[in-house]
Specification:
A alpha/beta (447), B alpha+beta (130), C alpha/beta (503), A: 447 residues, alpha/beta, seven-stranded mixed sheet, three-stranded antiparallel sheet, B: alpha+beta, six-stranded antiparallel sheet
Chain lengths: 447, 130, 503
C-alpha cells in the first residue's frame, strides 16, 4: 500500500524487537469472537479514485457551469486563486492544533489575524478562532449569554433567523431546560419590533436577530439591543452573509453584545455547505465566557513577540463538564482561508464586493418585479438576497430551470409550506448582467 | 514548611483562626502543583458558605481547580490584591497570597481539619500514589 | 544524535526553520493605496438602497496590501509551523497520519467545491450518492445499522450520540439523569454529556488502566443513561472485557457509547457493533485521514444500532427503489439538527477517497499503527516510566517520573524534542498519568523514522540526567524560544488594534 512505509524486512525486525512473532499477536486483547474483516470492495488505485469521485462530482450542478443565484446561508463569492493554493502547503494542511507554540507560530499568528479581521468587521473587541458553522455558532452565542445571565431560561429569537439555525437551537436547548421563543417578521419582512420587545421578560437571557435576515432584509441591530437591555438580557447579532458586514453598520456599533454566524462568504468555497466557517465575537467584559479557542499575544524567552493559545481553562480538555462548550477543534484551515481572503480584499475590496453584490441584487429585483404576475412580497430594504413570489409553485419551476443550467433560487416551501410560490434569489459579484438578463427572460417565458 | 498554626483540608486549602475570623488560602503544595496562577475567581463579601462548599476557582495556564471552604461562615473580606496580581499566591501562599476572610459560624469545625504534620503525611501519601 | 546549538548563529542554514523567523502581522505589512484584488467593472447601475443609518463607514484598520505581499506573508508564516510532511508528529489521540494528496484534488472538483447544499435534488444526485456510499462504508466498518454524517467534529458527534440515547430513553418514559465516564476519557466526553443535559459520574480506572467491572456494576443503576467508553482508551489499552461491560450496561437498560477517536487501532480488524456498542462517533480527520488543517475542519459521523435509528439527526439520506437519492426530512422522532445542511461535505469526499483506496485491506492501517506504537514502546521501555503496562494498541503513555528527580518535566521533554526535529507528544494527558507523554506514531511512519524518534527520546533522557538545564530551557532551535503562556493569560491581548500599533 502506498501509504504504508514499512517493508517486510522492517516488519520482521520490529516484531523481533517487540518480542512477538506476528502482528496479530498485538491484537490479543480484542476478544476473538468480535474480530471480523470488513466486507468492502478491493482497494482502488489513484486513477480509479479520481474516476469514481469524478463521476460523482459530474452529477452535481455547480456554480462554474450554471447561471447561479442560490444563497440562503451559503453564497457564491469569488475566492482568489492564491487563497486556495496556499491551503495546499503542507505546513498549513498537515499541522494540528497549535498546542505547542514554539513550532506553531504560523497557525497561531494567522488565527490572531483572523480574530482581528472579525473584530474589525463586527465592531466588537474579542473574536474566537472560529466555530463549526453559523447555526452552532448561534447556539454557542446563546449558551454564552445564558451563562452571563445565570438562572434565566429563555431566548427570544426573531423568526427572520435562518430556519436551520433556529432548528439547531431547538435541538441543543431540548436537553438543557432552555426554551426559544420566536417572534414573527412583519408584513414588510422586518422583525416586528413591538412584538420583539413584548416577548422579552425577566427570564430572558438573550435576544437574537439576524441581518440581513433569512429573507435578505436589512434589520437594525438596535431593535434587538433595546429589547434585550431593557430586561438585562444580552443582545445577539446573527450574520449569515458575512460580506454584508463591509457595508452595513457593525453589530458592535449598534448595541450588540455578541455577534455570531457564518463567514463562508469571506473566502471559503460553498462545499455543499461544509466545511464552512462559524464565527463569534463579543465585548471584552464577557471574554471569559467565550467558547472555543482563543489566541493571544505574548513574548518568548528572548522577549520577541509570539502568540499562543490562551484562556484554555475555559475549554473542555481542562474544565471537562464545566467547560464553556464541548467544542474541541475549530475550523482552522477555513479560518486561514478567510484571513488570506480578507487580507487580500482589505479595506477597499471587502466594501466593493459588498457594494457590487448589493447593486446586482437591486437591479435583478427591479427587473423581476416588472415581469407581469411576479411579485416582490417584502418592501423593506435588502442586501444581496430577496424573496420572489412566482405566479405558481416555485419548487417544480426551479427544478425545471436547474435542468436547463439556471440555478435560479431556493424555494421557501421546505420551511414555509404555506408559501409554495416564494423563493429566495441571491446575487454576488460573480453574477454578470448577461446571466441576470437570461434569468429574467426565462422567468418571463415560464409564467 | 506548612505553618504549624494553620488547619488544612484534603483539597489543599488552609485556614488561620483569629478570634471569630478565619483567613483562608491554598497551600504551598497546591500552588506548586498548579504552577503559575493566572486567574482567581472569588465570591463577593456577604456570601455565606457551609464548610466544604465551593467558593471559587483558581486557574493556572493549564489547570483549573475549585476552591472549597474549610469552615462555615460569611465572607467579610476578599483579597483584591491577589485577584489583581494572582502571582502573589505563588509567591506567598500562606501570607499575602491569602484568598478570603470569613466570619465563622461555629468553632467546632476546625477540630476536624488536619494539623500541619497530618497534612504533610497526607501529601506524601498522595505523591506516592502517582 | 546531538544538536549543534552553535548553529543558531547561521540560521539561514537551518533547513527546518529558514529566516525570517519573525513575521509582522498582515495589518503591519499594509500600506495605503495598495490593492490585492481585481473585480470586473460594475455592469449594473451603482446604488445603495439601504438607509444611511444602517450602513457603516470604511472598515478602519483593514488591510491595503498586494497579492505579492500576501504570498510572501503566508508562505513565511507557514514555515513557522511543524507539519506531518516534515517528520513524525506523535501527538497522542490525534492520529497525525499522512494525508493523501489526491483527496485534496478530488474535493476541489467543481461538482463538490462549487456546488450548493440547497440546489434541487435532481441536480445533486452525485453528492447525495457520495454521502450515501460513505454512510454504507462506515456502517460496514462499525458493524452498526446507520450513520449520521452531519456532526461537524468529534465533539458534535458525541453530543449527537448522547442526544439520541436521551431521545430513546425519553420515549420509553425516562431519559435518566447520569452518564458514566472513566477518568481516562477525553475532556469532550464529560462536556458533551453535560450539554446533553446529563450529570457526569467519573469511574476510576483499575491498576491495569482499564475499567473496573466492580466499580461499573456498582455505578450502573437504572438512573444511568449511558456509559461513554473510549475504545481503546486514552492509555492505548483495549478494554479486553468489553463484552462483559456491554452486558452490565445493557442489563440495566443503559446504552454503551463508544468514543471512536481511537478507531484507527482496530478499523478493519473488529466491528464495534459486534462488541455490544450501541452508538459510536468517528473522527474523519483521525482514522480516515482528512487533513487536520492547523485545527480543523473535522468531521464526526456517529453510527448507531438499529434501536437508535429513528432518532438520527434530520435529514437522513435515502435511496428510492428507482436508484435515485433524496434527503428525508420527515423523521418525527429525530433529535433534530445539529448544524446547517449535510455536514462537512468536503471531508466526506476525502474520507470516501481514503476508504476506497484501502478497500477490504483497511485492516492494514490498524496493523501498522499498532505495530509502530509497540515498537516505540519497546524502544523506550526502561528509559521512561510506564505506569500501565497492559498491551499497547495504537498509542503508548509514558511519564516523566524517572526524570522529575533532576527537575525535568514532561513539558520540558516535549520542548526538547523540537530541537531534534520532532513534534512533541501529547503532554499532561490523560490526567490519570501524572506528567504524561502520550505517543501515537500512526501507521504512516517508517522504521527509520521511528528509530530516529526513539534515539532522540533516549538522548533526552540521558541529557535529563547529565545536563538537565539544556532540556529545561528547550527549545533552542525553533522560530521562537519558549513562549510565555502565563503572561498571555494574565495580560490578554486577543486582537491587533489599529489605534495601538506596536510591532
Amino acid at each position: 500500500m502506498k501509504f504504508l512505509p514499512t517493508s517486510d524486512a522492517d516488519r520482521s525486525e520490529m516484531l523481533r524487537a517487540i518480542g512477538v512473532s506476528s502482528v496479530e499477536d498485538l491484537f490479543a486483547s480484542i476478544p476473538g469472537e468480535v474480530r471480523q474483516p470488513p466486507n468492502l470492495p478491493p482497494p482502488l488505485s489513484e486513477i480509479e479514485v479520481r474516476r469514481l469521485l469524478g463521476s460523482l462530482a459530474a452529477r452535481n450542478a455547480n456554480a462554474r457551469e450554471s447561471a447561479f443565484f442560490l444563497g440562503a446561508g451559503i453564497y457564491n463569492h469569488y475566492v482568489s486563486a492564491i487563497a486556495d493554493q496556499m491551503l495546499y502547503r503542507a505546513e498549513w494542511l498537515t499541522s494540528y492544533t497549535p498546542y505547542q507554540p514554539e513550532v506553531s507560530q504560523g497557525t497561531l499568528q494567522s488565527i490572531f489575524e483572523f480574530q482581528t479581521h472579525i473584530c474589525l468587521l463586527t465592531g466588537l473587541d474579542v473574536a474566537n478562532a472560529s466555530l463549526y458553522e453559523g447555526a452552532s455558532a448561534l447556539v454557542e452565542a446563546l449558551l454564552m449569554a445564558s451563562r452571563l445571565c445565570r438562572g434565566r431560561t429563555r431566548a427570544v429569537l426573531s423568526a427572520g433567523i435562518h430556519p436551520e439555525y433556529r432548528e439547531t437551537v431547538r435541538t441543543y436547548f431540548s436537553s438543557l431546560g432552555f426554551t426559544s421563543v420566536e417572534v414573527p417578521v412583519g408584513m414588510d419582512g422586518r422583525t416586528d419590533e413591538k412584538a420583539l420587545a413584548a416577548a422579552v421578560d425577566d427570564d430572558t437571557f438573550a435576544v437574537a436577530i439576524q441581518s440581513p435576515n433569512f429573507y435578505g432584509i436589512v434589520e437594525d441591530w438596535q431593535i434587538g439591543s433595546r429589547a434585550a437591555h431593557g430586561k438585562g438580557a444580552l443582545s445577539v447579532a446573527v450574520v449569515a452573509e458575512a460580506v454584508s458586514m463591509a457595508l452595513l453598520a457593525p453589530p458592535g456599533d449598534r448595541g450588540a453584545d455578541i455577534a455570531c454566524g457564518e463567514a463562508q462568504s469571506l473566502g471559503v468555497p460553498m462545499h455543499l455547505g461544509g466545511p464552512v466557517l462559524g464565527f463569534l465575537a463579543c465585548r471584552s467584559e464577557h471574554e471569559r465566557q467565550i467558547p472555543g479557542r482563543l489566541v493571544g499575544e505574548t513574548r518568548d524567552a528572548d522577549g520577541r513577540r509570539a502568540f499562543c493559545l490562551t484562556l484554555s481553562t475555559r475549554e473542555q480538555h481542562i474544565r471537562r463538564e464545566r467547560a464553556t462548550s464541548n467544542i474541541c477543534t475549530n475550523q482552522g484551515l477555513m479560518a486561514l482561508a478567510s484571513n488570506i481572503h480578507c487580507s487580500l480584499l482589505g479595506k477597499k475590496g471587502l466594501r466593493e464586493v459588498a457594494l457590487q453584490s448589493h447593486a446586482k441584487a437591486e437591479y435583478l429585483k427591479g427587473e423581476i418585479a416588472r415581469i407581469p404576475g411576479w411579485r416582490i412580497p417584502f418592501s423593506a430594504p435588502t442586501f444581496n438576497e430577496f424573496v420572489v413570489e412566482a405566479p405558481g409553485p416555485a419548487a417544480p419551476l426551479l427544478s425545471r430551470l436547474a435542468g436547463r443550467g439556471i440555478l435560479a433560487g431556493v424555494p421557501l416551501s421546505r420551511w414555509e409550506p404555506e408559501s409554495p410560490n416564494r423563493f429566495l434569489v441571491a446575487t454576488t459579484e460573480m453574477n454578470a448582467r448577461e446571466e441576470m438578463e437570461r434569468l429574467v427572460a426565462t422567468l418571463r417565458s415560464a409564467s | 514548611m506548612n505553618p504549624e498554626d494553620l488547619h488544612y483540608t484534603p483539597s489543599h486549602e488552609w485556614v488561620r483562626i483569629d478570634g471569630d475570623v478565619g483567613t483562608i488560602g491554598i497551600t504551598d503544595y497546591a500552588q506548586k502543583e498548579l504552577g503559575e496562577i493566572v486567574y482567581l475567581e472569588l465570591p463577593e463579601v456577604g456570601h455565606v458558605f457551609n464548610a466544604g462548599d465551593e467558593f471559587g476557582t483558581v486557574e493556572s495556564v493549564k489547570a483549573v481547580s475549585e476552591l472549597f471552604t474549610p469552615v462555615s461562615g460569611e465572607i467579610v473580606e476578599v483579597n483584591k490584591g491577589a485577584v489583581a496580581e494572582p502571582g502573589i499566591v505563588n509567591d506567598d501562599p500562606f501570607g499575602d497570597g491569602w484568598l478570603i476572610k470569613t466570619k465563622l459560624t461555629t468553632d467546632e469545625e476546625v477540630g476536624k481539619l488536619m494539623t500541619a504534620e497530618q497534612y504533610a503525611t497526607y501529601v506524601q501519601q498522595e505523591e506516592k500514589e502517582r | 544524535m546531538s544538536v549543534e546549538l552553535e548553529e543558531k548563529k547561521t540560521p539561514t542554514g537551518d533547513r527546518l526553520h529558514p529566516e525570517p523567523r519573525h513575521e509582522p502581522l498582515v495589518f503591519e505589512v499594509s500600506g495605503e493605496g495598495k490593492v490585492g484584488y481585481s473585480l470586473p467593472p460594475l455592469d449594473v447601475p451603482e446604488t445603495v438602497a439601504i438607509p444611511r443609518a444602517l450602513c457603516r463607514e470604511e472598515i478602519a484598520g483593514e488591510t491595503e496590501i498586494t497579492e505579492v505581499e500576501v504570498a510572501r506573508h503566508f508562505t513565511r508564516l507557514s514555515k513557522l509551523n511543524f507539519s506531518i510532511d516534515e517528520a513524525l508528529y506523535p501527538l497522542g489521540s490525534c492520529t497525525m497520519k499522512h494525508n493523501p494528496r489526491v483527496n485534496e484534488e478530488v474535493a476541489r472538483l467543481p461538482g463538490f467545491a462549487a456546488a450548493h447544499p440547497l440546489a434541487p435534488e435532481e441536480v445533486s444526485q452525485g453528492a447525495l450518492e457520495l454521502a450515501w456510499r460513505l454512510e454504507k462504508m462506515l456502517a460496514e466498518l462499525t458493524g452498526l445499522a446507520r450513520v449520521t454524517l452531519q456532526p461537524a467534529a468529534g465533539a458534535q458527534g458525541e453530543l449527537a450520540g448522547i442526544l439520541m440515547v436521551r431521545a430513546a430513553l425519553a420515549k420509553e418514559g425516562n431519559p435518566r439523569t447520569t452518564v458514566l465516564i472513566p477518568d481516562s476519557a477525553h475532556g469532550t466526553n464529560p462536556a458533551s454529556a453535560h450539554f446533553a443535559g446529563y450529570k457526569v459520574r467519573e469511574l476510576k480506572s483499575n491498576a491495569r488502566g482499564t475499567l473496573d467491572l466492580q466499580v461499573l456494576e456498582e455505578a450502573m443503576t437504572e438512573d444511568v443513561a449511558a456509559l461513554m467508553l473510549t475504545v481503546p482508551n486514552t492509555l492505548g489499552i483495549f478494554e479486553n472485557q468489553i463484552l462483559e461491560i456491554a452486558r452490565i450496561v445493557h442489563a440495566k437498560g443503559g446504552y454503551l457509547y463508544c468514543d471512536g477517536a481511537n478507531f484507527n487501532s482496530f478499523v478493519g480488524i473488529a466491528k464495534p457493533g459486534t462488541m455490544g456498542i450501541d452508538v459510536m462517533h468517528m473522527n474523519l480527520h483521525k482514522t480516515f485521514s482528512t487533513p487536520h488543517g492547523g485545527g480543523g475542519p473535522g468531521a464526526g459521523p456517529a453510527a448507531v444500532a438499529e434501536r437508535l435509528v429513528p432518532f438520527l439527526p434530520r435529514p437522513t439520506i435515502e435511496r428510492r427503489a428507482d436508484g435515485t437519492f433524496f434527503l428525508d426530512h420527515d423523521r418525527p422522532e429525530s433529535i433534530g439538527r445539529l448544524r446547517t445542511f449535510l455536514g462537512n461535505f468536503g471531508m466526506f469526499v476525502r474520507a470516501l477517497a481514503y476508504i476506497s483506496s484501502y478497500g477490504n485491506r483497511i485492516g492494514e492501517v490498524a496493523r501498522g499503527a499498532v505495530l509502530n506504537a509497540n515498537y516505540i514502546r519497546a524502544g523506550l521501555a526502561g528509559v521512561y516510566h510506564l505506569k500501565y503496562d497492559a498491551p499497547t494498541m495504537h498509542e503508548v503513555v509514558f511519564s516523566d517520573k524517572k526524570q522529575t528527580a533532576s527537575g525535568v518535566h514532561a513539558m520540558d521533554i516535549g520542548k526538547r524534542l523540537m530541537d531534534y526535529g520532532f513534534h512533541p507528544p501529547t503532554i499532561s494527558f490523560p490526567l490519570i498519568v501524572h506528567g504524561a507523554l502520550m505517543i501515537e506514531p500512526t501507521e504512516t511512519e517508517s522504521k527509520p523514522g521511528l528509530d530516529a524518534f526513539v534515539a532522540a527520546m533516549r538522548e533526552i533522557a540521558r541529557e535529563s540526567e547529565e545536563d538537565p538545564q539544556i532540556v529545561k530551557t528547550a527549545p533552542h532551535t525553533t522560530p521562537v524560544r519558549r513562549v510565555d503562556e502565563v503572561s498571555a493569560a494574565r495580560n490578554l491581548v486577543l486582537a491587533w488594534r489599529p489605534e495601538k500599533h506596536e510591532p
